[in-house]
Amino acid sequence: MKDTNQNGRKHVHVACAIIEREGLVLSARRSASMNLPLRWEFPGGKIEPGEGREECLKRELVEEMGVEIAVGCPLTPTTHRYPSFDVTLYPYVCSIVSGEITLHEHSAMTWLPPERMLELEWADADLPIILEYQRRKQG
Ligand SMILES: Nc1nc2c([nH]c(=O)n2[C@@H]2O[C@H](COP(=O)(O)OP(=O)(O)OP(=O)(O)O)[C@@H](O)[C@H]2O)c(=O)[nH]1
User: Fold this and answer.
1) Ligand 1 within 6 A of 125 CB?
2) Residues 6 or more apart whose Cβ sits within 8 Å of residue 28
3) Where are the domains of the chain?
4) Which pLDDT tens digit goes with each residue over 74-123?
5) Reduced to 3 states, what is the DSSP secondary structure of residue 118?
């Protein structure tokens, strides 16, 4: 997928994993040296050329956390305009099928019940995803 739009503005397409375990959800904190430093996000990353979204997620979770995941239900993709780039996030509900999490890129992680997720300071693009996920859990 192209990573600039018609205006020459950077637009990244990112698959992200809402990983569930025993009623809790995994949140990961970006490191101080990443862009959006210290914001919380879902693990995942940019979809490479020719790569499927689910394939991307499985690759990213091995690279970032050393775990194999099963990719489940998609949530609604959402596009957000940051000052210096645009991002479209493609969220999927996932579970870990093997491995123990080791953080290779993030500075922290936490498992929270869905209703407490907004206590963290999230990357702005994630808010619609969290709200949709919370609505699904309540309904
Ligand atoms: N993985 C992930 N990225 C997110 C989320 N929300 C969000 O705005 N992003 C943005 O989407 C992009 C994901 O790209 P990435 O993880 O592959 O890249 P990066 O920032 O670590 O490194 P890079 O941009 O220097 O290559 C980042 O710019 C990140 O700020 C999220 O929930 N998960």
Assistant:
1) yes
2) 40, 41, 42, 43, 64, 65, 103, 106, 108, 109
3) 11-109
4) 999 999 999 999 999 999 999 999 999 999 999 999 999 999 999 999 99
5) helix
CA atoms within a 13 Å half-sphere pointing along the CA-CB vector of 114: 18
The fourth-level CATH superfamily of domain 11-109 is: Nucleoside Triphosphate Pyrophosphohydrolase (3.90.79.10)
- Contact (Cβ atoms closer than 8 angstroms) between residue 73 and residue 95: no
Report the complex ipTM: 0.94
**C-alpha–C-alpha distance, residues 131 and 63, integer Å:** 27
In sequence order, the 6+-apart residues with CB closer than 8 A to the CB of 132 are 75, 76
What is the value of pTM for the model shown? 0.95
The reply to whether ligand 1 has any atom less than 6 angstroms from the CB of 60 is no
Ligand 1 contact via 34 beta carbon (within 6 Å): yes
